[in-house]
From TrEMBL:
The chain crosses the membrane at residues 9-27. Belongs to the UPF0749 family. This is DUF881 domain-containing protein. The keyword Coiled coil applies. Pfam families: DUF881 (PF05949). Keywords: Coiled coil, Membrane, Transmembrane, Transmembrane helix.
Length: 235
């Protein structure tokens, strides 16, 4: 009887030992897995936090770069605007320079315009011949009116005149800058032919004044007039 009890104790001891070992092993494995999970979670958090910090830094750098880009684009647009204004100024200066060259007679010019012819009229021998010939003031009237009407270049009998040209009447001839020209006097002007013709022919204007002085007056529109530059020094 006692031997059976001993055997029973031995069996129970063995069972408890096995259960204890299993429980201890399970607990140990559970702690390892828990520690591993904690370690993995902590590492993942550090990685995510680091990536988040890097992303924020990149976004901040992008905002700064974008702001810098906008500022540079604004400067470029300002430079382009200033350059455009300078180009316009230079273009206007070049255009004005060309006009001045034409006005001074420095360059050869051609274009449409008008041709005005002034001729001495037939006179009665008993009257003063000076009342029937073309004088410098007649030529001056025509030249001035043509310039006022917008003529870019004017010539008398083919001789180009400039801003400081002088016209003097010497008997039956007129000298232009010292060069004598006999009648008839052909005054050519380059510009808008319709405007020039209207300015000269207006009622009570230059044409009527000259005709009233017994001068033969004629006007013709020209499609193309060519004028050579003034040779020699032109101030």
């Amino acid at each position: 009887m006692r031997k059976r009890k001993q055997n029973r104790y031995i069996v129970f001891s063995f069972i408890f030992l096995v259960f204890g070992f299993i429980f201890s092993f399970s607990y140990s494995q559970s702690k390892k897995e828990e520690n591993l999970q904690v370690n993995l979670t902590d590492r993942q958090y550090r990685i995510e936090n680091n990536m988040r910090s890097q992303l924020l830094d990149i976004q901040d750098r992008n905002r700064k770069l974008q702001k810098e880009l906008y500022e540079k684009q604004s400067k470029v647009r300002q430079f382009e605007k200033e350059l455009s204004q300078e180009e316009e100024i230079y273009f206007n200066l070049a255009e004005d320079t060309e006009k001045y060259r034409m006005f001074l007679g420095k360059v050869k010019v051609k274009g449409p315009g008008v041709e005005v012819v002034l001729e001495d009229a037939e006179y009665i021998k008993s009257e003063d011949v000076n009342n029937y010939i073309v004088h410098e003031h007649h030529v001056f009237k025509v030249v001035n009116e043509l310039y006022i009407a917008g003529a870019s270049a004017v010539a008398i009998n083919g001789q180009r005149i400039s801003h400081d040209s002088y016209i003097v009447c010497q008997g039956p001839v007129i000298t232009v800058d010292g060069n004598p020209h006999p009648a008839p006097f052909i005054i050519s002007a380059i510009g808008d032919s319709d405007v020039l013709a209207s300015a000269i022919s207006i009622t009570g204007g230059v044409r009527d004044q000259i005709v009233n002085d017994n001068i033969v007056f004629s006007l013709e529109k020209k499609k193309n007039i060519m004028m050579e530059p003034i040779f020699g020094e032109v101030s």
